[in-house]
Structures are given as C-alpha cells and as structure tokens.
Amino acid sequence: MILPFFVYGTLRPGGTNHGLLLRGRTRHEEPARLRGAVLYEGPGYPYAVEEPGGVVTGELVTALPEEYDGLLAELDRLERYVPGDPRNLYERVARQVVRGADGTAAGAWVYVAAPAVAEGLRERGKLIEGGEWRGARG
C-alpha cells in the first residue's frame, strides 16, 4: 500500500532526520494532525502513543514516486521497525490524519510506539502537553 507519511519528530522540516532522509525526495509536505494519539519524550525524539482524545501535530509528507520504495525502507530502518518483530520500538500503522490547510482527511503511514514501549511510557514517561514536539527545532 502506497501512502504518504505523517511525521512528528526529527523527520519534520528543520529536524535532523528531515535533512538526512527527506530533503529532495518529497513531492509535497503540509501541516497535519493525528487524532487519537499523544506524544511522550524519548531519548532525543518523541514517541506517539495511541490514546483516545489526544492530538499530535506534524506534517504529511508525500514522497516522489521514484523515491517511495527506498524511502520506506530507510524510514523503517531509522525507526527500527521490522514487521512482526517483538523487539520493535515503533510499529508502522496506517491511520487517518487531518490536513491543516483544509481539514480534509488523508490516509498515512505513522510510526507509533510499539505496545511494550507504549505501556512503559504510559506508566513512567513524560507526556508532551499539546502534542507538539519541538526538540529538533529549538
């Protein structure tokens, strides 16, 4: 399934991984929100944890068609995501996001905290109030 990516941490414009992985490989980037999730601080990057009532702010990133497969593989490596691996830190899931410009919905890949990570964050993590992470952007 080919979907754009919803990014909310170091992959956002101005973030360290945006320049390394996304610059020059995207067709379109636009503000968006993910409903049904909250953010927790991680070690230099955030984790989205699915939680009813929460909202996470980020960008919807559409890859250039010729870059899509390679970019998907690189993002999976960055997020240490391997389908079905119980050691995953993140899971890549398809979710609906809301575009900031016009409020329309769009399907997107989102990397959310894997179940064991999410459980630990709910118990001991530091919640990022308001769902906006600025760690990579100052």
Describe what this molecule looks like in 3D.
The protein has 138 residues and is α+β, with helices and mostly antiparallel strands. It has one domain: Roll (Hypothetical upf0131 protein ytfp). 20% of the residues lie in helices and 42% in strands. The protein has helices at residues 16-22, 68-78, 115-124; strands at residues 5-7, 26-41, 46-63, 90-99, 105-113, 127-128. The protein has a five-stranded mixed beta barrel with strand order 1-3-2-4-5. The longest helix has 11 residues, at 68-78. The protein starts with a strand and ends in a 10-residue tail after the last strand. The mean pLDDT is 94. Residues 5-134 form the Gamma-glutamylcyclotransferase AIG2-like domain. InterPro entries: AIG2-like_dom, GGCT-like, GGCT-like_sf. It holds the Pfam family GGACT. This is Gamma-glutamylcyclotransferase family protein.
Topology summary:
Layout: E1 5-7, H1 16-22, E2 26-41, E3 46-63, H2 68-78, E4 90-99, E5 105-113, H3 115-124, E6 127-128
Pfam families: GGACT
Domain Gamma-glutamylcyclotransferase AIG2-like: 5-134
Protein name: Gamma-glutamylcyclotransferase family protein
What attributes does this structure have?
alpha+beta, Hypothetical upf0131 protein ytfp, five-stranded mixed barrel, 3 helices, GGCT-like, AIG2-like_dom
Quick structural overview:
With 138 residues, the chain is of the alpha+beta class. It has helices at 16-22, 68-78, 115-124; strands at residues 5-7, 26-41, 46-63, 90-99, 105-113, 127-128. Helices cover 20% and strands 42% of the residues.
